[in-house]
Every structure is written in structure tokens, then in C-alpha cells.
Amino acid sequence: MIFTSFLSLLAIVNVAIxxxxxxxxxxxxxxxxxxxxxxxxxxxxxxxxxxxxxxxxRAKWGFQTLAAKKSKRATVGIPVVNQKQDASxxxxxxxxxxxxxxxxxxxxxxxxxWVASAxxxxxxxxxxxxxxxxxxxxxxxxxxxxxxxxxTIHYGxxxxxxxxxxxxxxxxxxxxxxxxxxxxxQLTTGLLDGEAAGILGLAFESLASTQAVPFWxxxxxxxxxxxxxxxxxxxxxxxxxxxxxxxxxxxxxLGGTNSSLYTGELEFLDVLTTTQPTFWxxxxxxxxxxxxxxxxxxxxxxxxxxxxxxTLIGGPSAGVRAIYAAIPGSQALTxxxxxxxxxxxxxxxxxxxxxxxxxxxINSLDMNLGTVGSGLCLGGxxxxxxGSSVTAGGGNPSWVVGDTFLKNVxxxxxxxxxxxxxxxxxxxxxxxx
Length: 433
Known about the structure:
- The chain is mainly β.
- It has a 6-stranded mixed beta barrel. Strands 13-16-25-17-24 form a 5-stranded mixed sheet. Strands 15-14-20-21 form a 4-stranded antiparallel sheet.
- The radius of gyration is 29 Å and the shape is globular.
- It has helices at 2-17, 47-60, 66-70, 215-221, 317-325, 364-367, 403-406; strands at residues 76-83, 88-95, 100-107, 113-116, 139-140, 150-155, 158-171, 174-187, 196-201, 229-234, 246-254, 262-270, 281-283, 286-289, 292-294, 303-306, 313-315, 331-332, 341-344, 351-354, 359-362, 368-373, 376-379, 381-383, 399-401, 409-414, 419-425.
- The active site is at residues 107, 307.
- Keywords: Aspartyl protease, Hydrolase, Protease, Signal.
């Protein structure tokens, strides 16, 4: 030990008294960005290289890089398809590598993304299908025992079952390369219609049957969204008997709002939640019919899911009954239409709903779904306790407020704090504003 230490000491002393070592630096590129060349002309700067160097220094010393800032895209307006006179509203997603494009129902009343697969045994042959064999990026999700993960998702109008996978999913220029989704192999008849290939759930992660982070939340978590919100403007075609099956349906604004589509201030209301949000829930506080207040249930019976994926408005028996009792000549229907009401077609039903702030009117056109008998027209609000109802985890709301209401407002869904905003439609969006 002493011998080794002595040699080490000699080496240190020798280095200390040695002459300085001079090493020439070689310049690999004699003329670089901005340097004056032999002709006296300054070279053009390589902007990409300089920007990359600056970002390297920013990252090294803990500053936010310019590339990270640019990854947050500006608010994107995505065109919406109005399917079959306001029956549902669709947006396009791209799935897989290379991408396969599909129209899916934009649904704030659920949280899972799913699409019909080419191997779906019970799907309509006309339903567009995702061919998993053509995607190089799809990955099967397995359970702890190594088995392929499968799940069944229940909706009010049916159910879908299949295998859980991850793949690249894009929408409006936003991309998640590991988006969890259900590849559907079994489907209840009538759950999809026309060009729709599946559903894009836009509620919260805790509601997802696949246990996958919803697409919009994944974008938010990755810092891709400028603002933690998205908005909807939904068009009205219910009064247009010449409307095509797939008409222009408005705009899905991802990462913010489109101020040209509404007028005045957005009224934001806090989402009802105990531990973590599930549905987009608000408490319905008042309803008027033709200017007169209607007594509706309170407390838990007033909890309302704001749901773009539902065509109409469903509510508790007492509340729905009270609404139609305020419409002269209305009557409850029976048989397969049990839970629905009809009223004289000559009556314009002017209805408003409030969630603790402003009262928002519903156009009489949206309350009239068409004739169902001699001089009678079907109402746009039905009894949720009879027939189909919401059956997903997280508890059943008493009201499911769908497009009958949402066509009349610009609606915004904000993640932080969890809240929903409503505003009057502008003249651009067909409103009186």
C-alpha cells in the first residue's frame, strides 16, 4: 500500500512540473453560418442547426425547449358530420400505421375509444371496419396471466365486446402513439348506423371500461393541448327533410374554443364529483315550459349527464311527466313507444333549462320529432326510467341531456377545474347572436 502511494505521488509531481502540452484544434468546416467567405459575402445561417443547438442548451440547463412549446398546437377546429338529421354527430379519426380513417360518434357520455374490426362476427357488413393485420403498430394488451385482455362495454342502446389493444391514433393533427382502445368483435344490432365505425369517448378516465386514458386526456397529459378543454357546435337538420344522411354537422374544437361560434360570455359551471370525475355532470335546477316554471325533482334526481352521444333528453319519470303536463293536449304513449309523450303538432313548445345560472332555451323544432298519429307529434324528452338507460360504471345520472339541448348552445368541456361552459350561439353558428 505504501509502495503504490509513493509511485502515485511521483506521477503527480512529474505531471505538475512538465512543460505545457499544446494541442492544435482542427476546424472541420472552414466557413460556417454567417461567416464571410473568400468573396467577401456572408454565408446563409443554417436556422435549423442553430435552433437545435439553442434547444440543446435550454434542455441541458433545465429551461423549456422551443420544440416543447411548439408541440402545443393552436386550437384545432375539427369538422363534424351530422348523421341522419341530428341522430348522431361524427368526427374522423385515423388509426394504425399506415393510418386507416374512420368516422366515430363523438360522445361526452362515455370514455372508451372503440372501432369495429374486420373480424367482427355480428357487425353490419356495411359498417366500416379496422383491419388490424394492416397496422404495423398495433399491440395486444394482455392480462397479468398473459391472456389477451377482453372487455364488454355497455351503453343505453346496446353493448360492444372485443379485445383491448394500443395503436397510433390521430385526430385533427394530434397524435397518441400508444392509445388504448377496444377492437370490437361483437356488436349489438343497431348500436352503429351508416358510416359510423365506432365511438370516441370524451368523458373522464375513471369511467373507461378498457382502463385506457381517453384520447383527449392523453393529449392533455402529453402537453399537446394549448388549453385543457374542448368545445362543440352542433348543427340542426331535423327540420330539413332534404338533408343527406351525412350532412355538415358543426365543429369539434380541440384544445380550446372557437369564439366566432358564440356570443357573450361562456357560463362555466363546476362538474359534480365526489372523489374523481366520471361523466360530465351538472345539477338541473329549473325548467320552464312556455314561460311557466315546472316543478322537477331535486337532489340526486336532478343530476344530469351532458352527453353529445345521446340524440334526445332522457329524465326521471316525475320530471318528464311534469314537463308534458305543462303542454296542453299532451299524452303518454304506450307499446314500443312507452316512455315517450306526444303533443298537438300545432303547439310550439318553448322550453328552457337552467343548471344554476342562466336559463338556456331549446328551439321548438328540437322538441318536435315528427308526427306519430292524427295531429300528434313526438316530443324530444322521454322517460329514462322506462326502456333503455345509462348503465356504465360511476353511477347513473337521473337526466341524460343530449343533442336536443346541445344544438342550442355552444358547449365547452374543461378538465381543470372540471367544468362545463355554455354560451349563446353566434350568427355564424346559426344563433340569434
